[in-house]
Amino acid sequence: MPLALLVLALSSFAIGTTEFVIMGLLPEVASDLGATIPQAGWLVTGYALAVAVGAPIMAVSTAHLRRRSALIMLMGFFILGNLLCAIAPNYWVLMIARIVTALCHGAFFGIGSVVAASLVPEDRKARAVALMFTGLTLANVLGVPLGTAFGQAFGWRAPFWVVTLLGAASIAGLAAVLPKSEEARQSSLGREIAALRGLSLWLALLTTVFFSAAMFALFTYIAPMLRDVTGVSPEAVTWTLLSIGVGLTIGNLIGGKLADWRLGTTLAGVFLAIAVTSAIFSVTIHSFIGAEITLFLWAVAAFAAVPALQINVVAFGKDAPNLVSTINIGAFNTGNALGAWIGGVVIDEGFSLAQVPLAGSAMAILGFLTVLLTFSTMRPKGEALASS
């Protein structure tokens, strides 16, 4: 296992923690800054939209740089954004800080996943990407629950100080282990844009959007759902987030192996599993044991899709893998914003929190239909739904 993959995983752990930890602290943030829960949810949406908009801009802006230099620069943005989060005096400064942090997110994961795939043989590329994204899942296993507990004990700003230190450690690691001999990339803007042509690529990106919308329609509001509907304590929310994180990690590792085996079948099966478990959660949410079991299974299903979705878009955009991979991270976060917004609309329209997961189920069904359309008609290199 290349050491560089572990450093990339550490970096993704730091980025994932700063993105997701605020979900477990929405009630604390809203109370401290005088905002409502849906308004606090916009801090999730704002971050996601900034990734979606900033990802291609940052990818093109760094296209002439060595990947090593680009990744180190992007982590510099990450540190700056987290410092601003930690000292933000009001809601809007916090929103701006989240946007600054988000600028590094899409390009880092996009470029980093290309680097990860380049470090291993052809038949292990999805697993290498999965290993990098293991940092993201571990952010949910450890970063989010520990950050939530830390924020509840010492104030919601405390986790952002810790993540700032993780960012500094990540920069040091990237500088030490990433290959220094890589030639500077010569990139033509026209060539990069040309790689975005074709309905197949955009269907693959839309699949990513629906996946993320399905996930975050539920996940964004997990803390208030557990507190107000299931009736658990704030401390129990932390343990539930830990259980979800374990499920996400297991799903990510399983998904990497399945995607190397049969890409289309993996995606179709994952979307069906997300739709079913989300719908079931709208019923089991009223029971602590039922909710815990369902959320764990939902988490396994959800992150089994991540490496497959990343490999999926590169298959349709091989002429500019850095750009399309980065745009796919933007698609993840477009879906993140869409899901958070849909969940907020469900709440604002007077529906109960228990009905929010049904919105996620509907998004998953749309994703399943998109997968069927993509692999039945567009097929990268003649790839069928049931083969890689």
List keywords for this structure.
single chain; Growth Hormone, Chain: A; mainly alpha; 2 domains; MFS_dom; 82% helix; 388 residues
Q: Can you tell me the number of structural domains?
A: 2
Helical proportion? over 70%
CATH superfamily of the largest domain: MFS general substrate transporter like domains
Shape: globular
Relative strand content: under 5%
Q: Structural class of the secondary elements?
A: mainly alpha
The radius of gyration over CA amounts to 19 Å
Q: Which class of the largest domain in CATH terms?
A: Mainly Alpha
| Separation of the first and last Cα atoms | 24 Å
Mean pLDDT over all positions? 82
Outline the low-pLDDT stretches.
Answer: 380-388
Main β-sheet, in a few words? none
CATH fold label of the largest domain? Growth Hormone, Chain: A
Walk me through this protein's architecture:
It is a single chain. The chain contains 16 helices and no strands. It is mainly alpha-helical and 388 residues long. The protein folds into 2 domains: 1-179, MFS general substrate transporter like domains (Growth Hormone, Chain: A, Up-down Bundle), CATH 1.20.1250.20; 192-387, Up-down Bundle (Growth Hormone, Chain: A), CATH 1.20.1250.20. Keywords: Cell membrane, Membrane, Transmembrane, Transmembrane helix. The chain crosses the membrane at residues 40-59, 71-93, 99-121, 128-146, 158-178, 199-224, 236-255, 267-289, 295-315, 327-347, 353-375. Its main location: membrane.
Draw up the topology in text.
Elements: H1 3-24, H2 26-33, H3 37-61, H4 67-87, H5 91-118, H6 125-154, H7 158-177, H8 189-194, H9 199-219, H10 222-230, H11 234-261, H12 263-284, H13 288-303, H14 306-316, H15 321-348, H16 356-377
